[in-house]
Amino acid sequence: MFVVSELCNVVRVEAHRLKRSSIYDALRQALNNKFVNKVLLNCGLFIKVLDFLPESASTDFHILPGDGAVHKKVYFRAIVFRPFLNEVLEGRVRSLSPEGVKISLEFFDDIMVQGMRMQHPSRWDPTKGGCWIWDYGADDGDSHELCLEVGDRVRFRIVDEKFTDCSPVGPLVESTQQQRNLPSSYALEAAMNEPGLGVLSWWSST
């Protein structure tokens, strides 16, 4: 679920921060302030700086005209969230729709299970606010309706990932509706169509 990535970036550190801590503590804080909880294209969701690579010691500090801060190119390792394909994770159902189920890991919400990747046979029931129902045992003629609802703890398998470059390319988006229609910079596709996957209580021993 979490991986270590080697990255490089030019960091700006304000001069007053250098008085309170070592240079690498200041660089670490500046990098965390800049990247934590942000998606790096084709890398993953940035969690925290792990350490600095030896190459950082060979780069110089620069002070730009009109700017009292120091700038330094640093090479570092960071912990990022990027599950590998076929990894099995657990999360909580955030929302339901006829298209499928959206799952949250609390710190990451862009996980989608499409209806065709639910346990078979499953169907969307629009009553009672809408929920997905797995007709367990339908093939054997002894069917039991197992409901999947918002808030349920579920187990799922990652089947695909998608990165989208959301860098500005034109005028700023003004309307709230337009902002809602912007694609997610990092989204995961998952499946719950195998034994052991789906709502945890379905598989708990009694």
TrEMBL record:
<keyword id="KW-0804">Transcription</keyword>
<dbReference type="InterPro" id="IPR036898">
    <property type="entry name" value="RNA_pol_Rpb7-like_N_sf"/>
</dbReference>
<protein>
    <submittedName>
        <fullName>DNA-directed RNA polymerase III subunit RPC8-like</fullName>
    </submittedName>
</protein>
<dbReference type="InterPro" id="IPR045113">
    <property type="entry name" value="Rpb7-like"/>
</dbReference>
<keyword id="KW-0240">DNA-directed RNA polymerase</keyword>
<feature type="domain" description="RNA polymerase III subunit Rpc25">
    <location>
        <begin position="87"/>
        <end position="203"/>
    </location>
</feature>
<dbReference type="InterPro" id="IPR013238">
    <property type="entry name" value="RNA_pol_III_Rbc25"/>
</dbReference>
<comment type="similarity">
    <text>Belongs to the eukaryotic RPB7/RPC8 RNA polymerase subunit family.</text>
</comment>
<dbReference type="InterPro" id="IPR012340">
    <property type="entry name" value="NA-bd_OB-fold"/>
</dbReference>
<dbReference type="Pfam" id="PF08292">
    <property type="entry name" value="RNA_pol_Rbc25"/>
</dbReference>
<dbReference type="GO" id="GO:0006384">
    <property type="term" value="P:transcription initiation at RNA polymerase III promoter"/>
</dbReference>
<dbReference type="GO" id="GO:0005666">
    <property type="term" value="C:RNA polymerase III complex"/>
</dbReference>
